[in-house]
Request: fold
Amino acid sequence: MQARRIVVKVGSALLVDGETGRINRAWLETLIEDLLRLRKRNQQVILVSSGAIALGRRQLGLAKGPLRLEESQAAAAVGQIRLAHAYKELLESRDVTVAQVLLTLEDSERRRRYLNARATLESLLALGALPVINENDTVATAEIRYGDNDRLAARVAQMSGADCLVLLSDVEGLFTADPNRDPHAQFIGEVRQITPEIEAMAGRSASDVGSGGMTTKILAAKIAVSAGCHMCIAAGHHDHPVGRIEAGARCTWFVPTASPVTARKQWIAGTLRPAGAITIDAGALRALLEGKSLLPAGVVNARGRFERGDTVSVLTASGAEIARGIIAYSDADAARIMGRKSSEIEGILGFRGRDEMIHRDDLVLIRHEAPAVAEPLRATT
Ligand code: GLU
Reply:
């Protein structure tokens, strides 16, 4: 795996022994060793770990079988602390700092929260910590749940701009039919496009015992590949499950069509309705066309109501929309710092925000007036 940033998801069925209800510690140590080997090669690793509910329910004496939502929430509260404890012990004894991040669906679906969560992950990775993520099941109610860690992991991969997502589960990958029932079931090693046929296969394939079956894995694959991230479904119950994939063990790879930045920019350009608009001067326009960020100094006007993290239109002096981007300041703050140097921001607002009004990673050019452009521009409506 050549990836720069890898998200690995482990399912409950692997982590928690079905008989004893305890963590499969010996196996988990081999997984941790795999992850630390990736880190030694300067690859960044994020672990998405299920298991809270499976661990907690036994402790609370909740019998097997489906749990009511309140019971899952209670079990998660009890199990998550155990899970965190296990990761802390295993990682800190190997001199790695572990960080726990509990997310709810809104953390990836609402832009501001998405940006906050993304920034936190970015900081943790920059500081060398290993983020271990789970859904915040204790507070997530039915309407605001991911419900399965496959899609949570895909959102985390998208949010963190990862280039590889590995779903370790108790199935080897995707088959044309359930291999336990159909001797003619064929294994699919690579998926370049998620067609209706592929989705139909997922419905027929064997699924694991966690909340996510093959269907949620395909949904996860859709999120991952559209964000430019490779995704792999692999059997995880062997020791050193990630090492096995690297050694060529059979698994299903989903191959993306777009690179991460392009996909994220498509998300900005295509899916969000601008909350406001800012007008820029000729100098800022030139900078934007050269692929640079938008600084407060080049902004001459701000209108509309927006918060930090909202998408706004960027207009030229003649009112043409040249770009869209995620703004780092609210409308009120933007109005106060526009036309000013970035070094003055702290003095004006009383806090040190970003130097950029819109960072170039959060900016998509959509039309231009200058004859020469630095990059090909995509037309959007
Ligand atoms: N978040 C759940 C847990 O930790 C697992 C969800 C899943 O199985 O995908 O127990």
